[in-house]
From TrEMBL:
The protein, known as: Endonuclease/exonuclease/phosphatase domain-containing protein
Coiled coil spans: none
Annotated InterPro entries: Endo/exonu/phosph_ase_sf (IPR036691), Endo/exonuclease/phosphatase (IPR005135), TDP2-like (IPR051547)
Origin species: Actinoplanes siamensis
Stored SUPFAM superfamilies: DNase I-like (SSF56219)
Organism ancestry: Bacteria, Bacillati, Actinomycetota, Actinomycetes, Micromonosporales
Length: 243
């Protein structure tokens, strides 16, 4: 199965970009798409209509802004919310958490952790405790899944690959990083931030991720003919092979 994670960006030409993204995904070889920052059920429909199966939570505003699209049946989807801890911030309105679902034997955990507003991922930073609290939720949900089940934890973790919090989480949870050793950013470089880190990750337990790479990097033609990037993030895709 080919799996993609992609932060779809919740501001700026949202509907035209999501229409274009839906077309791109429909024509791609992606079997499972884990999306973040899709805030409304009405805009999620622009994507869900291109896949026979999907999962999200929330009647109007989507919990966590999380959407899972699949060409294979999706079973037992559920949303687990993160604790509202740390400095007050607008992100509280997004009700961040993790969307968990079963696709065949595979358990997929699509998530979006809180952003570090200081761009400082040292252990003593005020947002590092927020990240650790949210990772503890993921760790608890992982621990409750039978070790014989293959699991993918994926999404915008808002943590660089080499951050202490993420390294500790991967090690304690027994997760392998599909993009291990790759120095490329997954956030689009800007003049004011020319060297951002990799925030978007595919982590696996009990299965293998092969041919992982960055995708959705180029501009596309939006409805109406204007060209634009699909997001301020790049996508990460990999082939997931079950044992």
């Amino acid at each position: 199965m080919r799996l993609l994670t992609f932060n779809a960006l919740f501001t700026g030409d949202v509907r035209p970009r999501l229409r274009a993204l839906g077309r791109v995904l429909r024509e791609s070889d992606v079997d499972i798409a884990c999306l973040q920052e899709v805030l409304y059920r009405s805009t999620a429909r622009l994507l869900r209509r291109h896949f026979p199966h999907s999962a999200c939570a929330g009647a109007v505003v989507l919990k966590g802004g999380l959407v899972l699209l699949s060409r294979l049946p999706v079973r037992r989807p559920r949303f687990v919310r993160f604790p509202m801890s740390g400095p007050p911030r607008p992100e509280f309105l997004m009700r961040k958490g993790v969307l968990i679902a079963e696709i065949g034997d595979l358990v997929v955990m699509n998530t979006h952790l809180s952003a570090n507003r200081d761009d400082d991922w040292s252990p003593g930073n005020r947002f590092s405790s927020v990240a650790r609290a949210e990772l503890e939720v993921l760790a608890a949900e992982l621990a409750a899944i039978d070790r014989s089940r293959p699991v993918v934890v994926t999404g915008d973790l808002n943590l660089p690959r080499d951050s202490v919090a993420l390294v500790d989480f991967r090690r304690s949870a027994g997760l392998a990083d599909a993009m291990a050793g790759d120095p490329r950013p997954t956030y689009r470089p800007l003049p004011q931030w020319p060297n951002p880190p990799a925030f978007d990750h595919i982590l696996t337990r009990g299965c293998a991720a092969e041919h992982a790479d960055l995708v959705l990097q180029d501009e596309v033609v939006l409805p109406g003919g204007r060209r634009a990037h699909l997001s301020d993030h790049f996508g990460v895709a990999a082939e997931i092979h079950l044992a």
